[in-house]
Amino acid sequence: MLWTIDTGSDEPLYAQLVAQTHLAVARGDLAPGDRLPAARELATSLELNVHTVLRAYQQLRDEGLVDLRRSRGAVITAAAARDLTAVEDALRAFVAAAREARLSPEATTTLLQEELKR
């Protein structure tokens, strides 16, 4: 998986890592049992403070997406795939309804973003 960081974004750096991990699991790029890079390794490659990466990993752990173990590092959990399947199904239904209502992609995106803010 290729990690990228936008230092000009308003979104915190750790939150960008969390979002990219969620997206990678949803796309199937990361599967249950896959290991994330060591925090130091990822921090070095992205020129981040290691605490930024650790904060992202801790949030992913708190969300149940990864299991953190001393000897194994951060590993994608089996529960992560199950949880995302329901979200993917709901998104497909949402997109189908938006298409049926003849909403533009921009309007559909705006609706989703507004709902996420609630």
TrEMBL record:
The keyword Transcription applies. Pfam families: GntR (PF00392). Keywords: DNA-binding, Transcription, Transcription regulation. The keyword Nucleotide-binding does not apply. It comes from the Bacteria. PROSITE patterns: HTH_GNTR. GO terms for molecular function: DNA binding; DNA-binding transcription factor activity. CDD domains: WHTH_GntR. Gene3D superfamilies: Winged helix-like DNA-binding domain superfamily/Winged helix DNA-binding domain. Residues 11-79 form the HTH gntR-type domain. This is GntR family transcriptional regulator. It comes from Isoptericola sediminis.
